[in-house]
Amino acid sequence: MSKNLVIVESPAKAKTIQKYLGKDFDVKSSFGHIRDLPKKGMGIDLATFSPDYEVSADKKKLVTELKAAVKKAEMVWLASDEDREGEAIAWHLADELKLKPENRKRIVFHEITKNAILKAIENPRDIDQNLVNAQQARRVLDRIVGFEMSPVLWKKVKPGLSAGRVQSVAVRLIVEREKEIREFVPKASFKLDAVFLNKTEQEIAAKLKKDFEKEEDAEKFLELAKTTEFKVLNVETKPGTRSASAPFTTSTLQQEASSRLGYNVTNTMRLAQRLYEEGHITYMRTDSVNLSQEAIEGAKRQIIGEYGAEYSSPRNYTTKSASAQEAHEAIRPTDFSVKTIGDAQLSKLYQLIYRRTLASQMANAKIEKTVIEIGNAKLPHNFEAQGEVIIFDGFLKAYGIVKTEEDDEENNEKLLPKVSVGEVLDYKKIIATEKFTRPSARYTEAGLVRKLEELGIGRPSTYAPTIQTIQNREYVDKREIEPQTREVVKMSLTKDKIKKEVLEEKFGGDKNKFVPTDTGEVVSDFLTDNFKEILDYGFTARVEESFDEIANGAQKWKEMMTDFYSKFHPRIEDVEENADRATGDRLLGLDPKTGKNVHARIGRFGAMIQIGETDDEEKPVFASLMSGQNIATITLGEALELFKLPFDLNEFDGQPVSVGVGRFGPYVKWGETFISIPKGEDPLSVDQKRAEEIINEKKKADAPIATYKGEPVTKGSGRFGPFIKYKDIFINVPKRYNFDNLSQSDINELIDAKLEKEANRYIQQWEKEKISIENGRWGPFVKFGKAMFKIPKKKDDIKYDAEELKDVSLDEVKKWIADQDPKAFAEKKKPAAKKATTKKATTTKKAVAKKK
């Protein structure tokens, strides 16, 4: 066994580092954190804010292996990443593996190259407790916010919701942008574009320097222009420069990978992580634009060798962000002689980083800008043509130019022909087009990252998980917004004739942009109304600054937590006690048939329409909203259309057929089978012929692909991916199988494995009580209904083994369940009638309170 044990976070990094260290070093991976707050329960002592860390069940075997490796090593090198998360990983390892200060060393490096690793070994340090405390403060504060705010949402909005400090602010940004778009009133104006011809028939595209608010004013201008002799009034040529952008930080890499490569934030970070671990780039979680002197020299050599000395302009950049960690470097290649790498997806991102870093060390591009003014004294306004010529391409040679989504599509500056002042020009055409102002654009992933960074919310490591979380929680999504249509007026002047036409244009459509869901909007409004400070952008940024101060040793983390919690917890109690329920209720009008109120609101299963009131003698009726419909925008007419569902069609193959909409969207029901209607198709348009087509498609998809022991086997694709079905058993098909061409031996193998697993699943089962003791991935557990419970240890603090669990009585198991959930059995004993009484009593109580 080696004298030296190096522990890193990931197997890929371990593999790369092992290449650089000799046989005296053994490199192992901790696979991230080996311990964390418990998954169930808060896991924090709220009196002292001491976290109750535990080794997760899936890491216990690994920890045992690491402990064994530690015993055989003379020195343990903790080589996790150089950020706060990495420091905390090192601290947890040192604590859990009982490493003494004299037998451990902490090393950090921002690139995985031989030089960097050997240099780190030569310059070890101890664990930086300030960085660890900053990570603990973030983890503990976010756990408290989530654990205390989420139950308020369950009570006041609907069960199963969650809140988080950064995620809730991100959702708020998206919700506020959507409201801004809804409330936006477009203003129309007429913009004039012209194409002029010089003596040699060369075209000059120009724009009028003034827009007209009224159609008649634009038309009057065209009438004047009919008989006007246009001249070149002025030609101005001025030199200019363009500078390269700084090297990449985490957020600018995410933004540029989105605009240039179309990668989402999560994908960008996954690929960047691989590039770092394989030694191609420096550490990818950074908010610094600094480059080391070694990198500046390396870039200079590459630029002079590839482009020439005139293209080289070495420089260092300073970070504008006050919170940036200047000790870190920007994201850059570790070796400038490597231009490309094998994997296509990795190589695209690598080349983007390579070119951006190289460009940052190159000379400015020199341009010559030309502005031509065209007009006549008779006209109230003149035209202007703009163009530019690149005199020296400089950094553009490596990086080029890319347009952002904010750039005006119409500002395409082109090369202009040479003209002189006083030269007469003919107009080829002058077009006046009605244009409408546009609201702010919805956020893309890159745009949201840019906004969060601008507000000082979150840090490089938090952007990707935050964006993933708000989508997973179904607070926002990227559904397609269908465009609307409006009329626009276009007037064209050609050959002394004005032609007027009314055209149709589409507007308001969107793809791949964030849109809040109804639930996301209601939750965001509730939190903003009741937890103004937590959802305040300034407050969230100030919390980040406090974490920075803890990292610098300027603040104690438990003091910061005490101050925060002393204000936060009383607010939680107040909201829980006094805030009204939030349903996003919107009164749409009256139902013409019954005269009852029609409401759009959030219900137990999401957005819905309700006709009637909950306290009416006759129960209200409900209908789910369809995809693309929204509580805030649905009209009374659209809402009433939903009550045409479900409707019956004629029988097909001897079974009844109906069309409806449910929790998972619109469907065709055939007998007892529910078949989803394809996305974007209006269920109200489904007639008998279309329903039969959908049923036949389903029958074809569900046709047996094989048999197993004489029983049919079918296949399909569900929520958890591709599967095969045998009897009532669903079996997931792993990626290693060719799902489109499963052989009989593949099917036998999959079903055999599943049946064997099912046979070993139950240690004991009480079907009537819906209670069982089962073998799980991380050991035996108790299942009651759909809920899972831990099996406590025996009196001697030793775990039960499977054989002992076969003899445990039902009463003992019920006691285990009750100890973990006191209401588990009590709830079932409540008679249904009592619920109505309780409800009435609550209503009366509220009414009395209002009278007071």
Automatic annotation (TrEMBL):
Spell out the SMART domains in the cross-references: TOP1Ac (SM00437), TOP1Bc (SM00436), TOPRIM (SM00493)
InterPro entries from the UniProt entry: Topo_IA, Topo_IA_2, Topo_IA_AS, Topo_IA_cen, Topo_IA_cen_sub1, Topo_IA_cen_sub2, Topo_IA_cen_sub3, Topo_IA_core_domain
Reaction equation(s) it catalyzes = ATP-independent breakage of single-stranded DNA, followed by passage and rejoining
EC code(s) of this entry: 5.6.2.1
> What ranges does the record give for the region Interaction with DNA, renumbered to this chain?
162-167
Q: Which GO terms of the molecular function aspect are on file?
A: DNA topoisomerase type I (single strand cut, ATP-independent) activity
Swiss-Prot/TrEMBL keywords: DNA-binding, Isomerase, Magnesium, Metal-binding, Topoisomerase
Query: For site (Interaction with DNA), what residue positions does UniProt give?
Result: H33, R138, R139, D142, W154, R285, R473
Instruction: Specify the enzyme's EC class, one word.
Output: isomerase
Active-site residue list: Y283
Origin: domain of life: Bacteria
Annotated region Disordered: the residues are 827-852
**The Topo IA-type catalytic domain, residue ranges:** 128-572
Q: Where does the Toprim domain lie?
A: 3-112
- Functional note: Releases the supercoiling and torsional tension of DNA, which is introduced during the DNA replication and transcription, by transiently cleaving and rejoining one strand of the DNA duplex. Introduces a single-strand break via transesterification at a target site in duplex DNA. The scissile phosphodiester is attacked by the catalytic tyrosine of the enzyme, resulting in the formation of a DNA-(5'-phosphotyrosyl)-enzyme intermediate and the expulsion of a 3'-OH DNA strand. The free DNA strand then undergoes passage around the unbroken strand, thus removing DNA supercoils.
Enumerate the NCBIfam families for this protein.
topA_bact (TIGR01051)
Please give the subunit comment from the record.
Monomer.
Which PANTHER family does UniProt cross-reference here? DNA TOPOISOMERASE, DNA TOPOISOMERASE, TYPE IA, CORE
Q: Hey, which family's this protein in?
A: Belongs to the type IA topoisomerase family.
Protein name (database record):
DNA topoisomerase 1
Organism in which the protein naturally occurs: Chryseobacterium geocarposphaerae
